[in-house]
Amino acid sequence: MSDTDSSAPRMVTAKSARNSSRIFNIGNIIAMLVPVPVGILWAGASMLVYALNRHHPNEKVGHYTQEAAYRFYAVVGLVVVVATFFGTDVTLWLVTWAICAAILIPLSIRDLIRINKEEWVDTVIPESH
Questions:
Q1: Residue 129 DSSP SS3
Q2: Of 37, 61, 73, 104, which sits 20 to 30 A from 98 (CA to CA)?
Q3: Which of 94, 32, 103, 113 is nearest to 74 (CA)?
Q4: Among candidates 52, 53, 26, which has minimal Cα distance to 38?
Q5: Domain residue spans in the chain?
Q6: Whole-number Å distance between alpha carbons of 38 and 43
Q7: According to the model, what pLDDT value does residue 7 have?
Q8: How does pLDDT run across 10-38, given as a tens digit for each residue?
Q9: What digits encode the pLDDT tens for the residues 60-101?
C-alpha cells in the first residue's frame, strides 16, 4: 500500500507558488546585471519561464510573471529598434544598457517585495490539469 492517497487532490504549496512568481523578476535583475552573455540567454530562457508560469494554477503566479514579462519584452523590443543604428559604438550600447537596467531593476525589486508581502496559500490543481 502506498503512503500517498491517490484520491487526494494534487496541491501546489504556497512556498512553491511564491518561488515560481519570483523567477521572472530574478531573471530580469540578473540579465541586467550581467548583460553579456546572461542577458542574451535570458531573452530565450524567459520564454520558457513565461510558458511554464503564466497559466499556473495559482493566478497570482501568472499575474507576477506576466507583469515582469511585459517589462522585459518592452525593454528588449526597444533595444532591438534603437540599437539597429548603433553599429559598434560602445558608448551608445552602455548608455542603452544603463537605461534598461534603470527601468527593469527597480521595478523587479518592487515586485519581489510585493511577492514577499503577499499572503500565499496552497492551491488545489484542478482535475483538468
A1: coil
A2: 61
A3: 103
A4: 26
A5: 12-116
A6: 9
A7: 72
A8: 999 999 999 999 999 999 999 999 999 99
A9: 999 999 999 999 999 999 999 999 999 999 999 999 999 999
